[in-house]
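User: structure tokens for this one?
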Amino acid sequence: KISDANARCESLEEALKKSSSKAADALSSSDGDREALMRKIARLQFDLQKSGSDLKAQRQECEALREEKSDAEKHRRYAEQSSRKGVSFLTAKCNELSKEKEHIREELEARRSECDRLAESE
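Assistant:
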């Protein structure tokens, strides 16, 4: 009975060693998986942070482009308005000069007529 008990005890000790070895392997594997997961989480957090920074930079660039577009539109409207004012001014000036030219022509015609009358009376 003692030898059976010893054999049984040795068998149980061997089973315990195997179980302990398997548990250690599983724990080691679990630690490796855990470390791999932690590295992956750290990498994902870094990528997320980088993506957030990139997104922020893109938003700032978009805002700057919107402002630039708005400024360009203001300048375009101002140039159009100035152009219309310039055309209006030049048209008015042309009309004024045409009237002055007509007035000079009429005055010249009147003086010619007067010269012709004076020449006839002499």
